[in-house]
Amino acid sequence: MFIGITQRLICNESYYEERECLAKDWGELFNKDLFKNFIPLPLSYEIDFSRYKDLVKAVILSGGNDLNFLNPNAMSKKRDSYEIQVIETCLKEKIPLLGICRGAQIIAHYFNSCISPYVNHVSKHEIFFLEEKFISNSFHNFAIARLGDELEPLCFAKDKTIEAFKHKYENIFGIMWHIEREDGLNNVQILKEWLDLIKEEK
């Protein structure tokens, strides 16, 4: 089964060329037992998502690039536009959706959440989940301060910003840490819940 993944947009420095890319960490993640039944399918921004929707069982909105309203530029604008199309298609077609870091932010923004600049979010830190806490990576300069009415929080940082959430009625989750990087799987309970949704949609 394919899981579609949106990609980071970068500009080559030696000569101008806009590139879509994924860290090899994603390939390593899909080799783990947790993802053994799935194959990642990188999504190109040059191909309308309507052509992918019948091929994928779920979608991950990956990290990289700021949201355009936080750091306006052409590449962020392109990502925002495409990922909003993905969100709306997943809602319409009931395709399970997971946002990672920037991906969580674009989902939160779509559902009228408040995202603000925060310090001390580019390092390992404690995350509080139910009655537990665990250490995870963190690579973002913007944090989710408040969720929109359709979303509910699952995890918090020590400063009370939201580290994970889910939609109250739809198969949509957001995680602010990078599951594909070191210390990204120290707690997999939320990730397993999302993966179980994919099995239910088979």
Automatic annotation (TrEMBL):
Annotated SUPFAM superfamilies: Class I glutamine amidotransferase-like
GO terms for cellular component: cytosol
Pfam families recorded: GATase
Keyword hit for Lipid biosynthesis: no
Protein name, as recorded: Gamma-glutamyl-gamma-aminobutyrate hydrolase family protein
Single GO MF annotation: hydrolase activity, acting on carbon-nitrogen (but not peptide) bonds, in linear amides
Domain (Glutamine amidotransferase): residue spans on this chain: 56-194
Organism of origin: Campylobacter coli
Organism domain of life: Bacteria
InterPro entries per record: Class_I_gatase-like (IPR029062), GATASE (IPR017926), GCDPHdlase (IPR054647), PuuD-like (IPR044668)
Gene3D superfamilies on file: 3.40.50.880
Entry annotated with the keyword Amino-acid biosynthesis: no
Keywords: Hydrolase
